[in-house]
Design a protein that fits this description.
It is a single chain. It contains ten helices and seven strands. It is of the alpha/beta class. It has two domains: 138 residues, 3-Layer(aba) Sandwich (Rossmann fold), CATH 3.40.50.2300; 61 residues, Winged helix-like DNA-binding domain superfamily/Winged helix DNA-binding domain (Arc Repressor Mutant, subunit A). The protein has a five-stranded parallel β-sheet with strand order 2-1-3-6-7, sandwiched between helices. A two-stranded antiparallel ribbon has the order 4-5. The protein is globular and about 55 Å long.
């Protein structure tokens, strides 16, 4: 597939993902130079030092999630750099937050290779990519105009902890995994329950599955 000369930065903390994207892009797209970063800070440095056109970005890193990174990128560079979120996390929960923050699309890592190639082609060509399901959800949201759903009121950190809670991890295990204090996990848990109007983990699981 032909493209104009493009510089693409892949920011992901898993080397196998970065290598996979590199091989896929090199095989199917011409005139594309790939840059790689394993952390958000490393990504910021490359952006400042290079003429980056496109960013393929994961959500969760050891230094935190990338939502504020996207927000700051949008403020500082406007529409000159296009960002595609590439994550295994649920599109229905996370895509709206990142698009609202300034991302130009969302692609699931769970897609088949053919869909990923198609998505990259659309992204490099138009600077945007959304699945048909996401487009439909966005349209429904615009038509409904009824404000945010309860699940959309959760911050990314709250969503992350909610997912860990329903996976069966204890507060201590979550604290260890996220490098935060046990009491902080309890605070987040109480805040999540309050925002969603629930009182237990089964109700939280149902909320995440439905929304």
């Amino acid at each position: 597939m032909e493209t104009n000369n493009k510089n693409v930065l892949v920011i992901d903390d898993h080397s196998i993902v970065r290598q996979g994207i590199f091989l896929l892009v090199k095989k199917h797209f011409l005139n594309v130079t790939i840059f790689e970063a394993s952390t958000l800070n490393e990504g910021r440095s490359i952006i400042k030092n290079g003429n980056i056109d496109f960013i393929i970005l994961d959500i969760n890193f050891l230094e935190g999630n990338s939502l504020s990174f996207v927000e700051n990128l949008s403020i500082e560079y406007g529409d000159s750099i296009k960002t595609l979120i590439f994550s295994a996390l649920e599109e229905s929960i996370y895509a709206f937050k990142f698009i609202k923050a300034g991302a130009n699309g969302f692609l699931s890592k769970l897609c088949e290779q053919e869909e990923i190639i198609h998505a990259f082609s659309k992204f490099f060509e138009s600077g945007k990519y959304m699945s048909d399901d996401l487009k439909e959800r966005l349209l429904e949201n615009m038509i409904r105009k009824s404000g945010a759903t309860p699940i959309e009121l959760l911050s990314l950190r709250e969503l992350e902890i909610a997912r860990l809670l329903v996976s069966g991890l204890s507060n201590n295990e979550i604290a260890s995994k996220l490098y935060i204090h046990k009491s902080t996990v309890s605070t987040y848990k109480n805040r999540i329950f309050e925002k969603l109007g629930i009182t237990n983990i089964p109700a939280l699981l149902n909320f995440l599955n439905v929304n």
